[in-house]
Design a protein that fits this description.
With 258 residues, this protein is mainly alpha-helical. It has one domain. It is 74% helix and 0% strand. It has eleven helices and no strands. Helix 4 runs antiparallel to helix 8 and helix 7 packs antiparallel against helix 10. The longest helix has 28 residues. The protein is globular and about 60 Å long.
């Protein structure tokens, strides 16, 4: 018996459809992070940064760039992936997907791949916007792109799970707004956790976002709040956990077939 072949046409069709939906509102999608990044630099980089010294030899304006990128990547990855799978559930077209000659792996690859593409583009747009405001030097560009893609994929998978579990549009916003955003602000997005009191440093190490931001910041400046090996291992572990959950959802049809 021959093993089923990879349905590249099906994957490409779903991927193109998801990107097409994004391209219809691309100017709003790109304008929002540009304006938000500029405002963050006005408030944090100028108003606050002018009153602060360098952090580990890096100017405060440049130091917050990785955190700004991650803040947007986290939320956009979740929203893009959650909406991508929730909308077919909402309209009932999810049954067309389930009955199509597309495997669970191929469906996840298409939906998550499209969401990752959007998140990576937004991250690079923010990086380009920030480079116009403060001088930025990336010591490890390959590591930067690796972390950007891996973190985007991780949170896209997380968003996919949220989209499957959500019963309405309001529920899709609960985790990003009430959980992920606070964890990002408490995860050293705009400061080093080494600046905290010893007790709060210990507490911060239980925040998984710390390891993601630290690894991404290391790719810029060669410095992070935790070791690069630990950051990479934590990021990859989160990716595998969410990937396993998504695989189980498609295998069992949980919240997809009913």
């Amino acid at each position: 018996m021959n093993a089923p072949s990879f349905n590249a046409h099906g994957v490409w069709a779903i991927y193109r459809f998801e990107l097409g939906r994004w391209f219809r509102t691309i100017w709003q999608s790109l304008a929002t992070p540009v304006i938000t990044t500029s405002l963050y630099f006005v408030v944090f980089g100028t108003a606050i940064g002018s009153r602060m010294g360098d952090i580990e030899g890096v100017s405060y304006g440049a130091y917050i760039v990785p955190g700004l990128i991650m803040l947007t990547v986290f939320t956009e990855s979740i929203f893009n992936a959650a909406f991508g799978i929730y909308f077919p559930k909402f309209t009932g077209t999810i049954y067309e997907l389930l009955s199509a000659p597309v495997s669970a792996f191929e469906a996840v690859l298409a939906y998550v791949g499209a969401a990752v593409t959007k998140s990576v583009v937004l991250g690079l747009v923010i990086l380009g916007t920030a480079s116009l405001i403060v001088p930025i030097h990336i010591e490890h560009p390959f590591a930067m792109l690796t972390f950007l893609v891996l973190i985007s994929a991780t949170f896209c998978l997380f968003g996919f799970i949220i989209g499957v579990l959500s019963n309405n549009f309001e529920q899709m916003q609960v985790v990003p707004m009430l959980v992920v955003t606070p964890l990002t602000f408490l995860g050293g997005a705009f400061y080093s956790i080494n600046m905290l009191a010893p007790f709060w440093q210990t507490v911060a190490h239980f925040n998984p976002v710390v390891y993601l931001i630290s690894g991404f910041r290391w790719s810029f400046f060669g410095k992070g709040d935790v070791g690069i090996e630990v950051s990479l291992a934590a990021t990859f572990a989160m990716f595998l956990v969410f990937l396993g959950v998504v695989a189980w959802i498609f295998k069992t049809g949980y919240r997809l077939k009913n």
